[in-house]
Amino acid sequence: MQQLIGSLKDGTFKPGSKLPSQNELVEQYGISRTGIREALQMMAVLNLIEIRQGLGCFVKRVTPEYIVNADVLAILLEKEAILDVVETRKIVESGTAALATERGTPEDFWVMEDVLTQIDRTIQRGESVAAVGAEFHFAVAKATHNAVLARLVRSFTHLMAKAGELLETSVGDVSVFKQHELTSHQELYHIIRLGDPQKSRQAMIDHISYSETLILDAFKAAEGMEDSPVNSILVSA
Question: Which domains does the chain have, with CATH numbers?
């Protein structure tokens, strides 16, 4: 759904226009037909599109500000899943940090350094760091040389990125937030390289716990948005 909403924001799908068919959207976005159908239904709930039986889906005329709010509300619908992932990450990734300290090779640490460079360059371009920040955690997991752990952490990255997007829309100074993201990952990297598994374990817990506090604050702020078209959904969920 985030990709579809993004296409509304950037003008790919203009107000009053008809969206491509479900089959075309499946091919364009690489999402399952069920996923596309659910995304369209939720966008209709958010009052972004109108589904006309037998005719297709049409983009409604709404303000850019409304689309931005809808973007945040779409993330809110996944609140419980995001919080569950945060809780799981503290358990799993504290272990991956400790193992990465013990098993990481020079090549593994080069990959982590490369991700840190990507975060820095992303900040310089003024782009979101949500997705690339999640990649650092995957690089740590790969350094364990445990394929199951790496796949497990990889499964988190989608929701981790969504949480990051929410934070970037809710913080007072996004440039300061992005710089903190870079600094905190750099500090985590240096601790993992020190060679003390227990310090690495605690550093990862502290890192994720800090993010958890920001995420909870962001959810509270977003849920306080007035005239939310999904208030009833959030209350009944």
Answer: 2-62 (1.10.10.10), 79-223 (1.20.120.530)
